[in-house]
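Render this sequence as a predicted structure.
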Amino acid sequence: MLPFFPINWSNRCYIEPFCGSLSVFFNVNPKSAVLNDANKELVNFWVVVSDPLFYEGFLNLLKRSVYSIEYINKLNKSIECKTDTNNIMYICKRALLYYLKNRMSFSGFNKDKPSDIVPNRNILHANLDKWHSYFENADVRIWHKDFREVFKRIETTSDKWVKKFIYCDPPYVKAGSAYKHLFEEQDHRDLSDCLHKTKFEWVLSYDENPLIRELYREYKIVPIQWHYSCAGGNTIQKPELLITNRMDNLCEV
């Protein structure tokens, strides 16, 4: 996607209203960013990973954790019984529960019903330290808001955040079970309206769908093929769209 980003995008505040796994954020490594998601447990996890105090507590819990469904159930019960929800340990436990559920399921799906998958503990710790280091070297704000509120805020923030670049990877029209917070048609239309009104440059990822082509017909639309991993170590190709309001020096990919 980098050919679609402005040449000087790294000097702007990078905005992701649907940040998810932060895979794009970690790969582009911006100096400043606003990262937002509707999934409060996902946002809590990234807050913990980004904050030095929370992160230390989280790692201490992770070192003593057991990768089993029984351990996850006990952890979940201890969280449900907690009354002080601002307590550091409570916040770290929530992050640990989310992380274990995610890692003990195929591709992070079906987190409410984890399997007996036992991930490599060394790899998990290495990934966490790598993620934490990105936050140490960047000025990052992590939000848990509706995307409409995100657009309202970024249009009116202080001069420090004036230069912005927006990347959106929203729930797709045919999302299946991949998203915890699915979009209705009106949500897709509202996002289109937000992007139409913003004064900043943006890039958008979507599934190939007539509704999306209709909503963004006045913008640059490039069909692409993404490779996705699937069961058995195989990969499949899926047609998707990259859409942008940038019209300069863009080519087919």
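Summary. DSSP finds nine helices and seven strands in the chain. The mean pLDDT is 85.
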